[in-house]
């Protein structure tokens, strides 16, 4: 049982006890070291100062700001502004340098490629893939086949205003739906599809009259794809003689294309991204290897 | 004598303390062979440390001309004719291994030679002792002054001593930062307060540590802080030479006069006259006659002290000397002393040092001064162009370790009709791009390899890039793969 005897002296150690005793076991009076106690009190005093100077109490709306009005959010904003200031020079140089000259300046090219890669990842990768390899219906930007032109200016133009994007300056033009409109019959479509396959050296279905296909092609397709089927970048009409097919080169896909038409959309990025950023992106895309 | 203690006999401070409060040690000055060796080594070590940053080494225009320079901003390490890049850090690993094995070899031959003669703690403490002796006098004088009260002259002495200590400590920190920047320039900047803050901070840190460790902690560092005595104890074998009190000659200890009396009575008396000089001179305050111990840094000063006494009393010197227990026992049995510096462990250590040293030297002499790394594009792995040819993209990184700009040409070998193109370069020769690599710099470029072939290529085939220095004719090659895309 606990008992209390004030100020007793322990026989064994010769020290005073706290006077507390439990079942005959006494507690020695061993206070914390003075330096420890003093440090503890100093911490309490320090915390009061801290409490006054820095934000502390939560209130119903917001918090007590403290004398210094310190805010980590404001600090981050300042640091971001500083970063902008640090990069300001190069971003400005990017905005003012003519597009064609950027690739001649190794430092600016490196900057544009790095910046472009990041912006591409944020904005373009959902459709074109993180490495710009594209997908069915979304062009591969690494190759040398361009619907709307692969020069720096043309790439930039496409990024800025898009294609069928609703922007007045964007690229217009579409593949007509020859089957839906009834312009061509199913048989005619099969015939012309096989003729188109033959243009790029692909095999054709046995028994298909390629000469008839050629006639159908000349009557319906040359307006956009050209006499030699080399395409027309003004209209976004693809070259049908090369090895690259946006939607696929098999007969069924070509039949589907001729029947239903195609009208993929590239959004316009002007207004969403600033000029320097779009320039960086154009340089990046151009440097992927397919740029003309 | 070993009667158990009753609880009532126990006093709170009876227990063995884990940490013994520092006993002030007043080592006496001494002269002799080992003291002389210590002076020379101290002068050498301090000389190297303080003066090395001022040694110049011509590396050509634009390159730093400091012989030893750790250039952190540019990630370069310069050591006379050697210039190391960050990726060559393994040379330091090799150096550390050689240093460690050298320490083992020294230990298996002569005990803690490192501790006694070469360790910075020993060297600077010795320097601080010297200053202390010059100002406050030798052992007896210092003990007397410490026991006496405070006087004005005593105060002046202390101020002078600590000022000189601080000056040495400050200059130790100052010399340290000189290894990280051009020494004369940094000196000027330091004096005019133009130097970067980090330099002042490091000088401050090293001033404090030198002042505290060499002025106050002294032997405490060796006894309580340093791991080497513990490791060393595990590395020592019975053949290693250590500073040893030859008890076969020394026991029993007694004064000259008493020894004569005892000898007359035919009793055995040792050479030790129990003058305690070996204890008085010991910088860690131990008695070597108690045998080998952790606190002993084996500086050999007790050997000098004992030798001088032995000479005075006309007895044979080296009652304390570098010896081992085996020889003590052999002498006691009347056998001749033997020393075995060539043992399996010393042979292994020497072989390791020579082997690693040879590998490092070979690697250093044959290392390429033009490194080329190539990284294949991961997405897409390969691209088919409109004419059916296949192109692979790579990121190539060139490291020009030479001190001048170089023009290199890139050729590619492997895929049929392979053509190489580098983004951002205009080729003078078509299909063989040439690029300028800045001196002592890395250049990262995007490289495209196109293969135009009618034949079906395998899914993946090796491709070799040859980078040829146009001026020197040096060729560096690197390999990767060339991938064929799946047809869509």
UniProtKB/TrEMBL annotation, chain A:
GO terms for molecular function: electron transfer activity; heme binding; iron ion binding; oxidoreductase activity. The chain crosses the membrane at residues 35-54. One of its GO terms (cellular component) is plasma membrane. Heme c 1 binds at residues 124, 127-128, 266. SUPFAM superfamilies: Cytochrome c. C-type cytochrome. Part of the cbb3-type cytochrome c oxidase complex. FixP subunit is required for transferring electrons from donor cytochrome c via its heme groups to FixO subunit. From there, electrons are shuttled to the catalytic binuclear center of FixN subunit where oxygen reduction takes place. The complex also functions as a proton pump. This is Cbb3-type cytochrome c oxidase subunit. It is found in: Cell inner membrane. Pfam families: Cytochrom_C, Cytochrome_CBB3, FixP_N. Keywords: Cell inner membrane, Cell membrane, Electron transport, Heme, Hydrogen ion transport, Ion transport, Iron, Membrane, Metal-binding, Oxidoreductase, Repeat, Respiratory chain, Transmembrane, Transmembrane helix, Transport. It comes from Rhodopseudomonas palustris.
TrEMBL record, chain B:
One of its GO terms (molecular function) is metal ion binding. InterPro entries: 4Fe4S_Fe-S-bd (IPR017896), 4Fe4S_Fe_S_CS (IPR017900), Cyt_c_oxidase_cbb3_FixG (IPR014116), Electron_Trans/Redox (IPR051684), FixG_C (IPR032879), Helical_ferredxn (IPR009051), Ig-like_fold (IPR013783). PROSITE patterns: 4FE4S_FER_1, 4FE4S_FER_2. Residues 262-291 form the 4Fe-4S ferredoxin-type domain. SUPFAM superfamilies: 4Fe-4S ferredoxins. GO terms for cellular component: plasma membrane. The chain crosses the membrane at residues 39-57, 89-106, 164-181, 193-214, 347-365. Keywords: 4Fe-4S, Electron transport, Iron, Iron-sulfur, Membrane, Metal-binding, Transmembrane, Transmembrane helix, Transport. This is (Fe-S)-binding protein.
